[in-house]
């Protein structure tokens, strides 16, 4: 997507195209002092994110406080953008009012990198930062087509199989290791409409790795290609578990809002969720006995999804050296250890995960194990359009309202029509 076309997507901000280009030419030289200003001079760096639960906010505050103690001449102004995060960020970047450092989800990264609004970070990196310590799929998610790194991932989650230990024991079944086993176990765990063997999130963000497990591609050359018969074949068992086996359901069919709640309420014996479900279940359903396992293999291969967020730098920042110091600390071993210490997020540095014991933790180890082979939730600049159309039609097939092949064919056609008209 060209810079001009991107600016047009943020409405009135498009009139600022000229000023943005002018702004991009300034501030290229990184400041050489400790904080980005003259020696001893106080520098304020703005950091924007979308917030989190109270515990996460407390952890972030602690991390930022530790940073300010280490770099007393740098003050961090943290701003929470609660609604329409990316729209706000884009508008502010277009108007030359963007934060110095901000969160960027891997899903949104390709499009924003392509605009030229982000500062490449390679030139700031020193040997002691140890890039090789990052889980490779998470780091690669923030590389541009030019091979440069535009962000360092602050945390991530993969997906794992969550299972109800009591239900498994009562049914006399083992934790499934293959997808075929999962389908059979789900049948045995199902009790009419009171308890489903498997809770499903029928959306592309959760099904992408399954969709491509037979060799088909969801996206090809930045266009939708999920009507591929191989994709249909891969996803058909999910539909069949709901329509034929009656052993699977989506959360809203049992009055729940998401898979973790459905599982916690005992309305699903198994769900596939991320690290975020662990503290939720422990706090909301303290008496629930559950375990986790790596997602059952498909065609003999291990696979899962990964969702990751990076700290990135505004190319127009006038405080780049100080901004880098902040990114370096937050994604370095010390800052990352503090931020991820309570297990609300998983550290993208392998050494930090090992130091905190997450790689051996009974509940988090399967999530950590999946990091090295995970498919990161991103694929080109048009994935938002592709995702919306997939989700709109897949649900109709999942509910048995129409054949899956027919639903995905229509969704693909609509998605590519929208992409063509951009």
UniProtKB/TrEMBL annotation:
It holds the Pfam family SBP_bac_1. One of its GO terms (cellular component) is ATP-binding cassette (ABC) transporter complex, substrate-binding subunit-containing. PROSITE patterns: PROKAR_LIPOPROTEIN. SUPFAM superfamilies: Periplasmic binding protein-like II. Gene3D superfamilies: Periplasmic binding protein-like II. GO terms for biological process: maltodextrin transmembrane transport; maltose transport. Keywords: Signal, Transport. Signal peptide: none annotated. InterPro entries: SBP (IPR006059). GO terms for molecular function: maltose binding. Belongs to the bacterial solute-binding protein 1 family. This is ABC transporter substrate-binding protein. It comes from Geobacillus thermocatenulatus.
